[in-house]
Amino acid sequence: MASLIIQRIGAATSFDTNNNFDRRSLSGRKSGFLVVRSDGAKITTGLKPIGSRTHHLVTNAVATKPGNSAASTASKSGHEILLFDALREGLEEEMDRDARVCVMGEDVGHYGGSYKVTKGLAPKYGDLRVLDTPIAENAFTGMGIGAAMTGLRPIIEGMNMGFLLLAFNQISNNCGMLHYTSGGQFKIPVVIRGPGGVGRQLGAEHSQRLESYFQSIPGIQMVACSTPYNAKGLMKAAIRSDNPVILFEHVLLYNLKETIPDEEYVLNLEEAEMVRPGQHVTILTYSRMRYHVMQAAKTLVNKGYDPEVIDIRSLKPFDLHMIGNSVKKTHRVLIVEECMRTGGIGASLTAAINENFQDYLDAPIVCLSSQDVPTPYAGTLEEWTVVQPPQIVAAVEQLCK
Amino acid sequence: MAFARRSFKPISTTTSFFRRRLLTTTTDDITVETSVPFTGHNCEPPSRSVSTNPKELLSFFTDMALMRRMEIAADSLYKSKLIRGFCHLYDGQEAVCVGMEAAITKKDCIITAYRDHCIFLGRGGTLLESFAELMGRQAGCSKGKGGSMHFYKKDACFFGGHGIVGAQVPLGCGLAFAQKFRKEDHVTFAMYGDGAANQGQLFEALNMAALWDLPAILVCENNHYGMGTAEWRAAKSPAYYKRGDYVPGLKVDGMDAFAVKQACKFAKEHALKNGPIILEMDTYRYHGHSMSDPGSTYRTRDEISGVRQERDPIERIRKLILAHDLATEKELKDIEKQARKEVDEAIAQAKESPMPEESELFTNVYRKGLGVESFGTDRKELRATLP
Q1: Nearest to A81 by CA among A205, A239, A261
Q2: Which pLDDT score is estimated for B29?
Q3: ipTM
């Protein structure tokens, strides 16, 4: 299946997405849906798989700008949407589909959500299905998990990921471990979501990256969305999954705009996304750093390098399939993440790649992460805490020497 | 009779003798007075008179005798190192569990902390499942992967079995939330101890339950010691039934199975109409906090034997049965012997059950996802496997 390369011409805003990937799309049927793997294999999965019907592949459901696509097949109609709205769309579609799905969190109901992800849902579904909780993270996370034990499918929103530290006990012990310690009797189909990451001078306590703290918890899955397209797809997949999923959003990415397909699609929770195929170096990244990497990629292309950029999306488990194939091709790895250096996602990924693909590496893996400091308030200091595009360019040049 | 004995070969000569007797007296109602009147907080306490019948009285005795025997047997199994880790025993507190079961159905949910062996039995779990789980065998209720603190029985709405003090109370409110969401006519009993009563998440959960009128009944099993610290040293206000403030509470003699039954019935009616209520069960545990605690460094042996003599729940029922002439001393002793026999048989059977297979290490970590199975960073697998 030929991969489509959609070049962005005359980039105006720095946050437009630059997506090059094979299409994954599926039909919206209630009982089953089609998942298309990047190697073209078609699998019909779903909760109640009735006989499968082949559906034609939609090879470019996403265009970066309307009328700008170089696609050969007819471009399907899509609609432009902001990321928080894409999350809301995914949420609404799943709530329509399954009456057991409910949302709980602070300010999700009448206020409409502090980042407008749940706007309009409370008037539509009622106060019990879109529940405004008091400011008691430990207890309402526990409540969501208890409800999930009986078969409901709650989505627990942390207004900021950092607040979920208060619910760590519930997430680690009850959410992650109950399926195991009960010998498989109970499943916990919760989605725990919220924005995290370094914002614009929000201060140390509101700029935390919790993916590194949660990654060791057995029994949970973690995904990080970065574009409206994958935000909606991952939200839907997370809700449909029978496992507890933590969906990491980023405070600064909520207003990204993109055109997404009109028809229903669900993405694979455990799969990474090929953002830009290349030959010289594999750059692994996720969430906001994807955009810093793509910015650096522009500079690198001008300098003659051909980086392969992969948005790993699935933070636990890693998509070692795509990552491995990429390492086999380029032999050089650069990891760019927003986590702290110590014990972060990059650290685990470095270890995983070293263990599994040692033979394919021509150079040691370079991992660019945030500094191991509480995020300062001052703007300049905050800029220096996270990885910036010039550092990425320098790292690639060093790596490819 | 006893629901915990389903899986065993029944009918010894003594039980058939009971059957004959019961047929003649089973329809007669007996009224029993609770030992002390109830104390209410923001509510009208129910009456002291509880109606029961000979069948129920004998079933209370049989069940409590079985539970007591199970816990004592677990004690000796622990000392012979067949049970490892933490083992929290419930002997002395059996009346709470048995009285509660008599007032509710199997569709009402119960969730508790780590002192869960007898509650599991009360919900319909078998002795084999309990002992096998305690010894970490395959036949255990959680396939040997949970242990003493993680007994669960989904089909009887028993949600465990939790190791972290107080964490089960928000879960219990979640169960009540689901019951309200589905508009079910059932309630949730979220049990915790006097030590957990000082946890913040309890008050958070109580606030939410009261806010949304969830059918949650918070049951504080006050055995007066939170691990190794007496309640008066840990709590400024040991009147746990009053701690709900706007939520009504009831103080109940937890060593009297009929008081517990009456209170739970009252609480269930209340919760279905008006939202949460707190029940404080004044009870006592003979063992220490767990098997690693002798239980005598923070309380005197006189106190323990004093409670055993004055308030033992099984003795109370025995006296009631004898007073109402429902069985002779010998018959009751025979019931206890039968319990001992069943426990010994279950232990023998559990000992034969094998340890879990190695492959069980990796099962039940996740449920199958959307068709793709891939592995974490610790597994040396390159590709995702597709179904």
Answers
A1: A261
A2: 86
A3: 0.83
